[in-house]
Write a structure and sequence with these properties.
Layout (H helix, E strand, L loop, with lengths): L9 E3 L11 E2 L13 E2 L2 E13 L2 E12 L5 E10 L3 E9 L2 E4 L1 E3 L1 H13 L5 E5 L4 E10 L4 E11 L2 E2 L2 E8 L7 E9 L4 E8 L4 H7 E6 L2 E6 L3 H4 L12 E9 L5 E6 L2 E6 L9 E8 L7 H16 L5 E7 L3 E3 L5 E2 L2 H12 L9 H17 L8 E8 L10 H12 L5 E6 L5 H9 L5 E4 L5 H12 L2 E9 L5 E4 L3 E6 L4 E7 L10 E5 L3 E5 L3 E6 L2 E6 L4 E5 L2 E6 L3 E6 L4 E7 L11 E7 L21 E11 L2 E8 L2 E12 L8 E8 L21
Parallel strand pairs: 2-6, 4-15, 22-23, 22-26, 26-27, 27-28
Antiparallel strand pairs: 1-9, 3-4, 4-5, 5-12, 6-11, 7-8, 7-12, 10-11, 13-14, 14-19, 15-18, 16-19, 17-18, 20-21, 21-32, 23-24, 23-25, 29-31, 29-33, 30-32, 34-35, 35-36, 37-38, 38-39, 39-40, 40-41, 42-43, 43-44, 44-45
Helix pairs in contact: 4-5, 4-9, 6-7
Length: 695
């Protein structure tokens, strides 16, 4: 999506204003802080406000900072804002004494040349560059005359991503001085309704935060306001410096009546897909670990600590192996092994024994891991219903064997062949991160930079948690070809627990009511066999058998099955469809009739549009019209004409019993009966739906 090109943005403000040395203003105003009440080196920042409006996960943010030069000489003020890496700037203006100078946002190559030219000519210019784990920094400076006021206004936008079941909005707060009017104001509107909303700050205690923070939500709307007074900003009761220095994070989630939600506005649609309650798909993981000499010391120790924690989270149905590379390649086992308690204990011993040595052979390390995953599938060493993942960690560039980045990318791409994702972790700054990122992206994964801090092991573990619980594989989001003009990415190797898939597109025509979205994916693998004598639940070839005399509830990997003694069985799949099977019993010695089962589907609209069968073909809305009601052959049952599927059919008024709530007596439902075995109403003929026998 658009956010992918944010790191390539440079904003150039070509106003012709001169530039010289500077103190800074919020979000970072640097310089001496000895002057009282927010005046630093003669410059007072008297107002900073962040105003955010979030609609359907899309955040529109405006950062406005106002400053005045109280010195008797000109001062240069620099406006620094740290923004999320997934955001993109859409506008910037600079206003000095009522005169506004607009900025121009350019893409990387064009903007970089204009930026360098502007700087060489002494003009005011802004630049975006990396500023930590989650942030990019925007900086622009301007010379302000004595007594003059300046207003900086930056607008940026961001699609909030769902992580571990919550959307996160991340704001950096770092004014570096007391600000008379400091405020964060966030309005959230979610058509699905807001289910939870929270806010926290890393720089302030909960007691102080509570008095400066207000948060509320009801229905579709939520609001967060953080407005500390001058006294609440002080680092101590008598101090003149600010304690506002850290992260302000807002998290929320939405109501989900169904796994998917499609929103249509002004000819465009956005499809949000986040099923819940599905079973985790077993995974086959090849950990490809750099143990070259540069990993010596704390890096390798933190890698070991992270791997030991990851082993604690491995499930017994998972398979794994470790591939270590330096100047050559070695492996823990010859092939993938199951994560049994015995194997995991042996894996811990192996991890603890890892030692650094030699050069960096990224190419051969990756190819060995990929080959191992491919062979495991070909030789049926892993479950058929499982998914493969390659996780590679390195802290440097390839310097032995195949060392050309483009050739390594080609080799890896050909070896994987689109069958599974590659995730690359770059440890530190002394590596070609673009190479790691490009290689991961073209193999349906992503890259992460692991920062050389005391919590590097937690960073590694945090990454693993993102990919540890795949719920679906081979996800395809399909839409009517004649109804859309453009589409963002709509196929995904995996859907992970707590995340969300978002697809957007341009609709053709005005008939939005006929727009449908179909989602296909591989995940659940259950079979439920029901007869009038017993009920069998099969999970990966393991059966569990129950009788109609039982009263039980079974919850297993996202499936819920409830047996109500001698009445019915209710089967629910996560947030999806619920099926009800009703047991109809007759007199045991009846010469003709047998016990039989009634099959009902609750919330059938949640079934895919591709569902078919005698019942399934009617789960989605279809056009029909009943007219010309007239007396029938039975005076109590009128006839009428039903127009459906271009056919005109004669139908008769009658009633039927619905046994979902009362299996013995049932509920009377008035309906129209179609004659001739449903000819003209059903697809095909009735014999297409008849099985050889029922008993």
């Amino acid at each position: 999506m658009a956010s992918a090109w944010w790191p390539c943005l440079i904003l150039a403000l070509l106003s012709g204003l001169a530039a010289s040395g500077f103190p800074r203003s919020p979000f970072q105003l640097l310089g001496k802080r000895s002057l009282p009440e927010g005046v630093a080196d003669g410059v007072e920042v008297y107002s900073t406000k962040i105003n955010s409006k979030v609609t359907s996960r899309f955040a529109h943010n405006v950062v406005t900072t106002r400053a005045v030069n109280r010195a008797d000489t000109a001062k240069e003020v620099s406006f620094d804002v740290e923004l999320p890496k997934t955001a993109f700037i859409t506008n910037f203006t600079l206003t000095i004494d009522g005169v506004t100078y607009p900025g121009n946002v350019k893409e990387k190559e064009v903007a970089k040349k204009q930026y360098e030219k502007a700087v060489s000519q002494g003009k005011t210019a802004g630049l975006v560059k990396a500023s930590g784990r989650k942030l990019e920094k925007f900086t622009v400076s301007v010379n302000v005359a004595a007594g003059s006021k300046v207003t900086f206004e930056l607008t940026y936008e961001e699609l909030l991503k769902r992580h571990k079941g919550k959307y996160e909005m991340y704001l950096k707060v770092q004014p570096k001085q007391l600000v008379k009017h400091f405020e964060i104001d966030v309005d959230i509107f979610e058509p699905q309704g807001i289910s939870m909303l929270d806010a926290e700050a890393s720089f302030i205690t909960n007691d102080l935060l509570g008095s400066a923070l207000t948060k509320s939500f009801s229905g579709k709307k939520g609001h967060v306001s953080f407005k500390p007074s001058l006294d609440q900003q002080r680092s101590c009761p008598t101090c003149t410096d600010s304690l506002l220095n850290g992260d302000f994070t807002i998290t929320y989630d939405v109501n989900r009546e169904s796994p998917g939600n499609v929103q249509i506005v002004n000819g465009y649609f956005v499809h949000f897909f986040a099923p819940q309650g599905l079973p985790v798909v077993p995974k086959n993981v090849a950990f490809v670990i750099d143990i070259s000499g540069s990993m010596a010391g704390r890096k390798l120790e933190q890698t070991k600590e992270a791997l030991l924690r990851i082993l604690e989270d491995m499930k017994e149905e998972d398979y794994l192996n470790f591939i270590l590379f330096s100047g050559d390649v070695s492996t823990w086992k010859e092939h993938l092994v199951q994560a049994t308690p015995e194997n995991l204990q042996e894996a811990r011993t192996f991890v603890k024994s890892m030692e650094d040595k030699g050069m960096t052979n990224i190419n051969d390390g990756l190819l060995r891991g990929i080959s191992m995953l491919n062979k495991a599938r070909e030789e049926h060493r892993v479950p058929e219903r499982s998914t493969a993942i390659v996780i590679m960690l390195t802290d440097g560039d390839a310097n032995v064997g195949e060392s050309r980045p483009e050739k390594i990318q080609e080799n890896v791409r050909n070896a994987i062949g689109g069958k599974f994702p590659l995730y690359n972790l770059g440890f530190g700054n002394n590596l070609n991160y673009n190479f790691l990122e490009n290689m991961a992206l073209e193999n349906h994964g992503f890259a992460r930079r692991i920062y050389e801090d005391s919590d590097a092991d937690l960073q590694l573990q945090g990454f693993y948690e993102e990919v540890a619980n795949p719920l679906l594989t081979g996800v395809e989001m399909d839409y009517p070809e004649n109804a859309i003009l453009g589409l963002t990415q709509n196929t995904y190797q995996h859907f992970y627990d707590g995340s969300e898939i978002v697809v957007a597109g341009h609709l053709v025509g005005e008939d939005v009511n006929s727009f449908k979205a179909d989602v296909k994916g591989h995940g659940m693998d259950f079979q439920v066999e029901v007869t009038t004598e017993k009920i069998t639940l099969w999970n990966r070839a393991v059966p569990s058998t129950f009788s109609w005399l039982d009263t039980v509830t079974v919850t297993q990997d996202g499936l819920s099955m409830m047996i109500n003694r001698k009445k019915n069985m209710v089967v629910s799949f996560g947030d999806g469809v619920t099926f009800v099977v009703v047991l109809h019993q007759v007199w045991k010695k009846h010469p003709v009739h047998h016990d039989f089962l009634g099959f009902y589907v609750v919330d059938s609209h949640r079934m895919s549009a591709q569902t078919h069968g005698l019942l399934g073909q009617f789960f989605q809305p279809f056009d029909f019209k009943v007219s010309d009601i007239r007396p029938g052959s039975d005076p109590t049952k009128p006839d009428a004409t039903l127009v459906v599927k271009t056919h005109q059919l004669t139908v008769t008024r009658g009633s039927q019993k619905d046994y979902r709530k009362d299996a013995n007596i049932g509920t009377k439902v008035v309906c129209w009966f179609v004659h001739n075995n449903g000819e003209g109403l059903i697809d095909g003929v009735h014999t297409d739906y008849i099985v050889p026998n029922l008993f």
